[in-house]
Amino acid sequence: MARPKSEDKRNAILAAAATVIAEKGLGAPTSAISREAGVAEGTLFTYFATKDVLVNALYLELKQELADAMMEGFPRKKGVRQRLEHVWNQYVSWGVMHDTYHRVLRQIQVWGGLTEESKTAGMVGFAEIQTLAAEAASRGMLEGLPQAYFGAAMQALAETTMEFVRRDPKRGDLYRRAGFRMLCSGVKFGR
Fold first, then answer.
1. How far apart are CA 161 and CA 177, in angstroms?
2. Each residue of 2-17: b (16+ CB within 10 Å) or e?
3. Which residue in 13, 78, 121, 186 has a CA-CA distance of 20 to 30 Å to 85?
4. 8 Å CB contact between 118 and 52
5. pLDDT (tens digit, 9 = 90+) per residue, 151-169?
6. Can you spell out the DSSP letters for 120-161?
């Protein structure tokens, strides 16, 4: 029987960490993560020197997965509104389809152990989205508000939309469209 490859074990530990943290929070013991991954606790520490290192690595994995999902099919040659709508729809879809990962990512983002290095690295995949926000701001679409404010408002509205889509999937498209209309009411698209 072939032994699992090193990368397979690392990925199993990260997947287990997401599952356990979603269920038990960031205070979950590494023994629970090891058990879920099907590896010895010592093996976990072979791949991740500390639990903080593991959680930072999980953050980066989740951010990259989210960035990949949001950028899939990104309409680079379309207008600001169409690109923003694409980002909105992809973010909401990812959050609904990957509820566990989404909940874990939210926890890690407010965790005190998240390093500045991880925060910076986690934003790399969102460069085009940041460019989109800068373009909207430079055109006066954000009414002079900081991009960070608009981003936080978008995230809060998307979180609400995701929750309602999860609760009532039959009306998911309605919630998604309504959420985007609400978001757009705070943006001047230059009609």
1. 9
2. eeeeeeebbebbbbbb
3. 121
4. no
5. 899 999 999 999 999 999 9
6. HHHTGGGHHHHHHHHHHHHTTTTTT--HHHHHHHHHHHHHHH
- CATH number assigned to the domain comprising residue 171: 1.10.357.10
**In a shared domain, residues 102 and 66:** yes
191 falls within a domain: no
Residues belonging to the chain: 191
Contacts for 77 with CB less than 8 Å, ≥ 6 apart? none
Residue keyed to tokens 């009414």: 143
> How many Å apart are CA 16 and CA 37, to the nearest integer?
5
173 found inside a domain:
yes
Q: Are residues 33 and 58 located together in one domain of the fold?
A: no
Query: What's the pLDDT tens digit per position in 89-126?
Result: 999 999 999 999 999 999 999 999 999 999 999 999 99
Give the C-alpha separation, 83 to 16, whole Å: 34
Structure tokens at 67: 């960035």
Query: Tokens representing 49?
Result: 């020197």
DSSP state of 1: -
Q: Do the domain assignments include residue 22?
A: yes
